Every structure is written in structure tokens, then in C-alpha cells.
Amino acid sequence: MATDVVVVGSGPNGLSAAVALAGAGYSVEIVEARERIGGGTRTDELTLPGFRHDVCSAAHPMGILSPFFRSLPLEAHGLEWVRPEASVAHPLLDEPAIFLETSVDTTAEGLGRDGEAWRRLVSPFLADPHSLLADALGPLGFPRKPIAFARFGLRALWPATLLARTLFRERRARALFAGCAAHSILPLEQPFTAALGLIFAVTGHVEPWPVIRGGSERLAEALVSVFRSLGGAAIRTGHRVRSLADLPPSRAVLFDTDPLQLAEIAGSELPAGYLRRLRGYRYGPGVFKLDWALEGPIPWRDPRVRRASTVHLGGPLEEVASSERAMYRGEVSRTPFVLLVQQSEHDPSRAPEGHHTGYAYIHVPGGHHEDLTELVESRVEQFAPGFRDRIRARHAMTALDFERYNPNWVGGAITGGAADLFQLFTRPVAALDPYATPNPKLFIGSASTPPGGGVHGMGGYHAARSIARQLGGRGLPHPADGLVPPQLGPGPDP
Fold it and tell me: 387: pLDDT confidence band, cut at 50, 70 and 90?
């Protein structure tokens, strides 16, 4: 008897789709090319024994607030969010660091004369942030909360640089907003870059940006545990799919892959015009990443920076914008914007007693292959003199290394492709249902579909909804309606 759905790939989106479909009563099989599940949520001893490093995702603002993840009993299945005192620290060389705190008032107090402007920016979205996220983390359509979403859209469509300079008079608030907006991996002068800045600012006032105890891989393991509790026992690892003939019989196939892999694997079953559009998908910039085994904590100039899970090393707005602009031109800034996560400050299980891990990456042109260790470490040293003296070992990954590690990350594009004005709403192609293909059996639900990159599982969940509609059986609810599958099983026995 054929399986209802085969899911190709076990990243957060593939696992989320599998859980959602299994919870709705469909039979599901997961097929993964690597020997371990997880995609962008794997954790390994990359440097020395006892030092556990997140290979890709590290801090999880969208994970803890994901409408789908919030509906699941992930904690009962072994997941533990570790909440820091502050989400973001943004150090400056000549004055105290800036912090994104859960408290709007505390954050505003650190922004001087711009504190009230910050309150006015974020407060309207904090009355019902979960509805905002449910509307934002999905395909283009009519929102459930149209007035609130329209208000968000009026701010979101701005270039981040213009919004920051319009709303704020001083450099502290401008720098904090720029650091949040730079997660878009776009020049901050582009339209819609303010959207990421605003979303990340709001999330930091709802929940501190957490790390996961034991490593990001624990999230994948918890999703697998939920999947098994729903009867979804079929998970096949170490099986690379090169054609549809490599898959078991099924009523539908969901690809948690990039568009090129969908085209390569299923090309014989898709029309030529659709394949051209898939192959024309733009991936954009990549990343260069370092992991460190450290003899002690990072010696920040401002010791309070240790309170935060995530550190934005970018200086003022102008410096952050210059770095992101250079990356998009195919260059590497000499003063790069560095995204650093200090997991072991909040999760001591990541390193042997008395030691720490460090994690940092910068945005680079797609396909970049040069070792930028010296550049990144020099940048950290600026804000933390003596940092290099604490390094016991390091592990570097270029943009091409990321692509070799996971073919989904073409050119090192860990967020699944460029999310600029021309591709934000047309991922992977312009379509009323971006998760469906012209073949009624084939679907895509990866970071290359709405809402794009990040560990939230919503691309997979929305793809599962599309599949359920196609199969004609029991459907799946909208994210704003709770999502909890009635058959959801209990956690594993202690």
C-alpha cells in the first residue's frame, strides 16, 4: 500500500510538514540524504571533544515564537529553550553597549532621547504579537488581522536606513535597528529591509532570543519524537534522492530542498516552463562562519554584553549598512557586520567546565571561498581585547563549504535564497499556491518558499496544508487557529 506523503529532507520545514500531516492522519515517510536528521539544526564537536557547536542555526527568536512550534508539546519531547537576560547586545567602541531587552521600557532607557520613538515603533505590535507572526510567516494572502498587518506593512516596506534615520535622532537606536534589519542579508537601502528589523525588534520584546540546551539539534530530535508519537515511524537516513525512482510509492512528495534540486530530481515530471523558472531562482549572498573553543568567556569591553545570546558587532548604522552594501556588490567589507552567538554563556552543557564556545558569521558574496578568519577575529578583538588569547581551537566554513555540507544552501545561502523586493513574494516562483507545482503529486516546502529562511517550520507547515487540500482528506487549520492536531500523542516516557 502506497504511503500518503514522502518528505524529501529533514530540516525544520520537512520535519514540520511530516508532523502536521501525521497529526492529521496521513501516513508519512521521511527520506534524508545525510546519516542524521536536522538540516540547518545540527550540532557537532567541530573543534575539540566536549565542545558542542551549532553548525548553522544558533539562536532561535522565530523558533520559540513559531505558530507551529508553539502548538506542539516540544518540551515534553525533550526540547529546552534557554532564555538569556537580553536578546541582543550591540557594542559600540566608545560608549556602553546597546541592548534589546524583553522590557520595552528597559530597552528604551538605554536609547536616550530616542527611547520614546522606540516605544512608539514597537508597542502597537505587542498587543497581539502572535497573530502578527501568524500573518507574517506565511504566503501572500488576506491577513487574519488586516488593520494590524496593514500598520506593520506601512513600516515594513521602508528601507531600513530610511526608517531608522526618520524615526531616530541618535546613533544608539539607529544602530540597534540596523543590526536587527541586517538579518535580511540585503543592502539596508533596499525596500522591505525594515520588515526584518521590525519583526526581530518585536520578537525580542515577546521572548528573549533563546538557545537550545544541548544544541540546536535537540529541536530536530524533539520534532522527530513528536512525529513518532503520531505513528510516523518511517525515517530513512543516508539515502540521497537523485530521481523520483529513488522514492517509495506515494500519493504526494514534498521537497524540503532548494528549487534546483527539485528541478534535478523531478525534472522529467514537470513542464519546461516551470523548470526554467525554478532554475532562474536567485540565491543571493552566502556566509563565512567561525566556531571557537575558548578557554574562558569572551572578554568584552563592556562585560554586560555577556547577558545577551546574540551580539551584533557592527558599530553605528552607517557601518552596518556599508558592510551589507559591499557584500551585495560582490565584495567583503574590511569592517564586516558580525553576528555572534555565545551559547555557552547560557547553556553550560556546550563546553567543558570553565570553558566556552563561540560562534560568529559574516555575510559574503555567494560562492565565496576565501578564508576570512583573520578579518572576523580582528573584528571581534576590537570589541573584546584579548579575545584571541582565549582561542584553543577554531573551525571555519566558507560559503562553498556550506553548499558542500548542505546542497540546499547554494553558494552558501543559508536562508534559502534572496528575499528582496523581486523575490520576497515569488518564492520559488510567482504562484497563487507557491508550495504546489504543475504536477499535482509534487510540492516544495523549504526555506525557498514563503516565509523564507529561519528556524520556524512554517514553510513546511503551509506546504502540508497545500498537500492536504490536494489529497482531498482532512485539512489543516490556519496558523492563527491553534494548529494542535487532535491525535497528538504524549511525550516519551521518562
Answer: very high
- Position 401: which residue type? D
* Predicted confidence (pLDDT) per residue in 124-149, tens digit: 999 999 999 999 998 887 788 888 88
The closest alpha carbon to 88, from 56, 114, 116, 111, belongs to 111
pTM here is 0.95
